[in-house]
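Got a spare moment? Tell me how you read both lines of this record:
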Amino acid sequence: MHPILFKYGFIEIRFYGLMYVVAILTATWIIKHEVRRKAIAISEDDVMNLIVWTVIGGVVGARLYYVVFNLGYYLSDLKEIPAIWHGGLAIHGGLIGGISVAWFYLRRRSVAFWRMADAVAPSLILGQAFGRFGNFMNGDAHGAPTDMPWGIVFPPESIAGRQFPGVPLHPTMLYEMFFNLCIFAFIWLVLRRREHRDGYIFAMYVALYSVGRFVVEHFRADSLMFGSLRAAQMASIGISLVALAVIIAGRLWETPGEKKTKKV
């Protein structure tokens, strides 16, 4: 694998950037489709603006989250802070940044946030799958050394190759990509087949992704650390518990208007 897809003179197209473009284009189609299907009162222009601002918020949030956990390195080389093509985007930070911007934008447009969040959820997890393929080609977000037959030796110029030259590593990017695709299939083919209370699909996406990330993080070699603990696993536990609590407290799996019957 090689991080550069195409290069001609000073023009360079990287898989990392290409996957972001693919994710955004796919997300645009999915969100527009879901907005129409769910009859959400939002204009097409506002949908496009929401996507643009959410992507910007997500990228900024993902980068700031990563920088904070590696502050010493980035303070010693400030020009590396915006160099996202060198790797270093934390998904939990991206979710925080993107969701915050989306909430503010939808609130200003008087659009129901949770109903819109359900429409956006499938595109988020699919976009994350595309992003992990970009990580694979870039040789970052890599795993620890392994003697399993599917271990991959990354090129020496990649981040993984520089850390573990000539050593087979767990392809954790592909692990998470596969798990994300499974979540997308479950949301798209199962959860969308019936009506639920607003927020259910988004909460399920958050909970399922957090479980998968917790498992995959065990095999990572470049985890962000909070003391002796893996930051992503801590965040995953907390986020999944909150999501499940919201689902249970709000009985979000019920159809709209369905009331809980009391036992006598």
In short: The beta strands are 4-8, 11-14, 225-226, 229-230. The chain has one domain: 4-250. The chain has nine helices and four strands.
